[in-house]
């Protein structure tokens, strides 16, 4: 490994990249477009995990067994993404609607005149 890979500026650059990706992943869902939300939620999370693992944890220079373990974890991640995307992308339910906080309980649901 070169001495540059351990210099503070190296880690600051990686931190700045992670910060930019964080900002993108926060702004993405604000558009209200489902596929943009999915890309920013899962895609950027995957990229950030790779950057942290490869550079901060120095897995980029590890033996090949680490690569196989990471690929196995990515496969499990894809299973999780596929399972949740089916539910999230469904048009049924209120998963993408903002909850109304001003909903009131109908008058017939009040049972204040009944003894407790």
What this model shows, in words?
This protein is mainly alpha-helical. The protein is flat. The protein has three helices and no strands. The longest helix has 25 residues, at 64-88. The mean pLDDT is 76. The relative contact order is 0.08.
* Contiguous uncertain segments of 5+ residues: none
* Strand element count: 0
Calculate Rg over CA atoms. Answer: 23 Å
- Gross morphology is flat
% residues in beta strands: under 5%
The SSE string, one letter per element, is: HHH
Number of helices: 3
- N→C terminal distance: 74 Å
Number of domains: 1
How would a crystallographer describe the biggest sheet?
none
Report the structural category: mainly alpha
Q: Give the helix proportion (percent range).
A: 55-70%
């Amino acid at each position: 490994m070169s001495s540059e890979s351990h210099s503070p500026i190296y880690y600051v650059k990686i931190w700045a990249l992670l910060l930019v990706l964080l900002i993108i992943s926060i702004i993405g869902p604000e558009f209200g477009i489902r596929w943009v939300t999915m890309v920013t939620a899962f895609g950027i999370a995957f990229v950030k995990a790779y950057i942290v693992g490869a550079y901060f944890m120095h897995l980029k220079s590890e033996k090949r067994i680490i690569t196989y373990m990471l690929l196995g974890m990515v496969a499990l991640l894809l299973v999780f993404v596929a399972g949740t995307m089916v539910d999230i992308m469904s048009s049924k339910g209120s998963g993408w609607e903002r909850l109304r906080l001003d909903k009131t309980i109908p008058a017939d649901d009040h049972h204040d005149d009944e003894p407790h």
